Amino acid sequence: MSNYQDFEDRHIGPSASDEAQMLGVLGYSDIKKFIADVVPENIHIAKQLKDVLDGPKSEVDVIAELRQIASQNQVFTSLIGSGYYGTVTPPVIKRNVLENPAWYTAYTPYQPEISQGRLEALFAFQTVICDMTALALSNASMLDEGTAAAEAMTLARRSSKVADDAVFLIDKGVHAQTKAVVATRAKPLGITVLEVDSLSIPSGTSYFGLLVQYPDTTGAIVDYSKVAEAAHDAGALVIAATDLLALTLLKAPGEWGADIAVGSAQRFGVPMGFGGPHAGFMAVRTGLERSLPGRLVGQSVDAHGNPAFRLALQTREQHIRRDKATSNICTAQVLLANMSAFYAMWHGPAGLTRIAERIHNYAAQLASVVDTENKSYFDTLTIKVADASVVHAKAKALRINLGVVDANHVRISFDETITDSIFASITSIFGVKVSPAQGSGIATAIKRTSSFLQHPVFNTYFSETSMLRYLRTLADRDLALDRTMIPLGSCTMKLNATTEMEAVTWPEFASLHPFAPAEQTQGSRLLIDQLSKWLVEITGYDAVSLQPNAGSQGEFAGLLAIRNYHDSRGDASRNICLIPSSAHGTNAASAVMAGMKVVVIECDEAGNVSLDDLKAKIADHGNTLAALMVTYPSTHGVFESAISEICALVHDAGGQVYVDGANLNALVGTAQPGKFGADVSHLNLHKTFCIPHGGGGPGVGPVIAKAHLAPFLPNHPLDALAGPATGPGPISAAPFGSASILPISWAYIRLMGGEGLTHATEVAILNANYMAYRLKDSYPILYTGNKGLVAHECILDVREITKESGVTVDDIAKRLMDFGFHAPTMSFPVAGTLMIEPTESEDILEMNRFIDAMIAIRYEISEITDGKIAVEDSALRHAPHTIGTIASSTWERSYPRERAAFPATLTGLIPGELIGMKGKYWPTTGRIDGAYGDRNLVCSCPPVEAFA
């Protein structure tokens, strides 16, 4: 296909002549010589990626190869249940959200003024969860049902006042994968987990929490009201793992006494996808809101007194509380949560109830003519049979998967996709004839009588025209990568190419049940195996698990591998984790979750790990040293030349080295953590390997390790092929985590080839240094390497500017919105700074546009320091400027309207050819009051349409 331009040239923004121009600005004539001055010689790899990875393929060829791999999957009607169900994604949502870059390229809504669309959608998701569970407050999604249950366990431990040695109880009817994830999480925390029949808990048991499944994994619906009373009398909290669709017909957990509800919103319009990604959820009763992990969308007001949404309380709590954080989760499943919220809007309460009744009716018809173990049910029946193998064989002959129980039982879970034709096949499998159902599997005492989803947003958008326009209206309130550069340091917002995204919605990948027989999922397993091998080649490690479904989970898995490695050698006393003061906040929280104690290592004036302090801390802790966690290149945006020495010091003391993979975008093809001394890392596929952010999730955070740690990588009780038998258990609910989005990273690596991946890293570093060079006269660069160069990101030091002018990083961030840009990373890792990362995807015109916007803002700051205008009266302090502000009949500002609305044209600093490159983006909300939002967590707001 030689007539097609190489994908590498499509992915990398700057052209060859642009590269030459930027190199010239930096004083170089050759990119290899430039990289040699950036990457320390002692870690630069001699063996090139082009020698170990295949060459690049064209987009046409990659799609053809993916089609061939997908064809090796067999999409059966999977009625296995266990928390995963067939669902119908409404096409209007599939096309306009899941496949729409306006939604999937957005960043986490830390800048709420340019995130009101996705914040409104997330608030609607929270409303769905609160309404369905009848609990006071919900977060903005969790990673999956299993990890949500594990988080609920630790929430219960923090909140319960019972004795420290109290145990955690799990009902025998909880899904197997959830039990396993909870057990994995409990062990390093020293929590004892006991499996019980919740209806007959032994008297005298001291327990702080009880997890039940409602309906349970067998399909039975238990009235837990008396169980909840007994638990509360014992000082324990009750956690209900529940099913949103079932709750249209069942009494809500909050109505029978549950303190916490968790689960998955998957069957609200999100494909099974071989296990994910899906939006988990957690809702809590009043009194537990301050302990709620994850993200929470609340209401605040903007500078004009108008209501507006923002993230509240939990926004990046790990970076504030570090090892005291309640959770290491710093992400969510925003894209999938939004889809589920829109699914609820599309169907409304009446439509959801009709779907649930139809499913229940199929179950009732079959229940009346087979021998069921569970006499109560919503959608799932556990059926006694003479020979389960015969029944499974009949089902497979009709391309139907049933749930495996034992030799004399099978399980069947009905879902939204069942048709009369499929139901006829099911009755033939069991050799029965059915008639219209006469009864119900739901007892009167546990039927739902309360209303839900009464807000107008769930009762308005029933025509495709109205839904399409609503989705477009929300998207227009946001600023995503499809409009402009998002220069966030440490977050790597790069191109998510359409070809990479294409296979995600193919049914061969999207419609697989995670517990389908292995012979039906050979294509996905082949893709996983190939991707795993490529990641090993790229990083220099020996083994990888793709199961962790977020970077935070990969961190936990890596530290758990270290913990179990030490234990296997009789070194249980090794529990100290050394972490530099500059580290990502999740590092400390993950270490605590893995049962370690955090000791902070100071950084020197150049931003490097202090070797003197490291040596002192190693000497202090001796035989108790378990690990060092270090980000490389450092979170300060530099390649530390002493990294190999640092690793050697830790190894000599008997510890292990964890390299945080957040900054891998500066290493691919230039250095390998597995070769310069690291023992284990997590990789952020949603950064370096092109899985999009989705507004704050999904992500994939594989854990990758050297051979001696490989036996301790995650495994799974329901899939022997998903990890080593010696592993600690599952980190995520599904065997391969968020498997349906792995084709994105597979396609990126296949399209780029080894040489292209290396070139992408080189250009990412070049772009960052070009921007640093052009901005250094306006804003000091805080840290650089030995030759005055940075890695793939740079930190602008605004602290002295703030002292002189009063202009803060917040002011700069909000003013950038008037230029149509998202802010860089604010005040991390150093307060009062801005961290910029352009990535290799940004072309020179867009980078120049951003640079010139920053220079224009510096010009406005100089007007303040020169005494021409007070900071309180400046455009910087009043930014962002909405169209309502500009169009107001009164204007009493100290600067003209034109300066407010079109700052680029007023200063005269931006070249004429760059003016008008982009259509004017109007923030829909003025500056939002964060403190007000934290004081008013629960929204008492007018209908969502009022904000339209």
UniProtKB/TrEMBL annotation:
CDD domains: GDC-P. Residues 760-881 form the Glycine dehydrogenase C-terminal domain. It holds the Pfam family GcvP2_C. It catalyses: N(6)-[(R)-lipoyl]-L-lysyl-[glycine-cleavage complex H protein] + glycine + H(+) = N(6)-[(R)-S(8)-aminomethyldihydrolipoyl]-L-lysyl-[glycine-cleavage complex H protein] + CO2. The keyword Oxidoreductase applies. The keyword Oxidoreductase applies. Its cofactor is pyridoxal 5'-phosphate. The modification N6-(pyridoxal phosphate)lysine is found at residue 687. Its EC number is 1.4.4.2. Transmembrane segments: none annotated. Gene3D superfamilies: Aspartate Aminotransferase, domain 1 (3.90.1150.10), Type I PLP-dependent aspartate aminotransferase-like (Major domain) (3.40.640.10). One of its GO terms (cellular component) is glycine cleavage complex. GO terms for biological process: glycine decarboxylation via glycine cleavage system. GO terms for molecular function: glycine binding; glycine dehydrogenase (decarboxylating) activity; pyridoxal phosphate binding. It comes from the Bacteria. Keywords: Oxidoreductase, Pyridoxal phosphate. Residues 9-429, 458-710 form the Glycine cleavage system P-protein N-terminal domain. InterPro entries: GcvP, GDC-P_C, GDC-P_N, GDC_P, PyrdxlP-dep_Trfase, PyrdxlP-dep_Trfase_major, PyrdxlP-dep_Trfase_small. The glycine cleavage system is composed of four proteins: P, T, L and H. PANTHER family: GLYCINE DEHYDROGENASE (DECARBOXYLATING), MITOCHONDRIAL, GLYCINE DEHYDROGENASE, DECARBOXYLATING. The glycine cleavage system catalyzes the degradation of glycine. The P protein binds the alpha-amino group of glycine through its pyridoxal phosphate cofactor; CO(2) is released and the remaining methylamine moiety is then transferred to the lipoamide cofactor of the H protein. Belongs to the GcvP family. This is Glycine dehydrogenase (decarboxylating). The gene is gcvP.
